[in-house]
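About this split. The held-out portion is used to measure sequence recovery: a designer receives only the structure tokens and must propose an amino acid at every position. Recovery is the fraction of positions where the proposal matches the reference. Here is one held-out target exactly as it appears in the evaluation file.
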């Protein structure tokens, strides 16, 4: 082979090698290199609703599974029977339950996970505010959040998210959320702006709750606050040895 061609191929091979090396160490995506990701989902914890009445009950069961880290084998009908007398819907007309009954069921059945905790419904005027609150509480408590979707006719579970930083540390941008739908996908990622959370438009509860929920973004949230770890103690100056009073120092 002519020497000039050999030199050219050697330079080309060196360039290709350098490109492969750079590609191997560069981050696949800028967001992936800097984002905070948290998701409590695992496959055997997912629950599909047993009929068209049990979306909140199935969501309750899977949320408790995700908290416990295993399938607890909870009965959706048992959960629904607990929810209905304690929610804000008309008992003569209702088929399922609502955010009030859902939150009470999560709190009541919490000991099945080996823990005691409280869930409460919260209503927000924007999707962004509701989802950021959901992400913050997932980060603080390591527990999933319930979402009222289909304008209040269905329930789903937010199991995790991707954000620009850990929400416990201050302001952040929410980029993606993971949703488990008891009537749909077991685990699907959405952009924060494209999540299924939408305004609650049902008017089948008592007047006070209709007013509280109507046209709001309603979520069912684990309660809790973040306590930053105590800073490490600052080491003090090294003590200077002192001579005991009355000590005789021999002179040499």
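Reference sequence for scoring:
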């Amino acid at each position: 082979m002519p020497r000039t061609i050999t030199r050219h191929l050697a330079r080309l091979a060196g360039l290709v090698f350098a490109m492969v090396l750079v590609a191997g160490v560069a981050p696949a995506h800028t967001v992936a290199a800097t984002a905070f990701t948290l998701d409590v989902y695992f496959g055997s914890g997912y629950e599909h609703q047993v009929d068209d009445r049990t979306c909140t009950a199935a969501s309750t069961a899977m949320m408790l599974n995700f908290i416990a880290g295993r399938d607890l084998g909870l009965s959706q009908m048992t959960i629904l029977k607990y929810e209905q007398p304690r929610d804000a819907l008309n008992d003569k007309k209702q088929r399922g339950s609502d955010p009030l009954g859902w939150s009470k069921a999560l709190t009541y059945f919490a000991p099945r996970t080996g823990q005691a905790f409280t869930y409460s419904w919260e209503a927000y005027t924007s999707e962004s505010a509701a989802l950021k609150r959901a992400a913050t509480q997932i980060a603080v408590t390591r527990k999933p959040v319930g979402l009222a979707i289909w304008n209040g006719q269905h329930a789903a579970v937010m199991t995790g998210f991707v954000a620009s930083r850990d929400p416990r540390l201050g302001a952040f941008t929410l980029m993606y959320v993971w949703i488990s739908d008891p009537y749909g996908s077991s685990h699907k990622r959405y952009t924060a702006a494209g999540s299924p959370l939408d305004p609650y438009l049902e008017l089948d509860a008592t007047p006070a709750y209709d007013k509280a929920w109507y046209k709001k973004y309603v979520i069912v949230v684990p309660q809790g606050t973040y306590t930053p770890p105590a800073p490490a103690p600052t080491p003090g100056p090294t003590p200077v040895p002192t001579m005991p009073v009355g000590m005789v120092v021999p002179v040499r």
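Annotator remark: Residues 30-222 form a domain with the Cathepsin B; Chain A fold (CATH 3.90.70).
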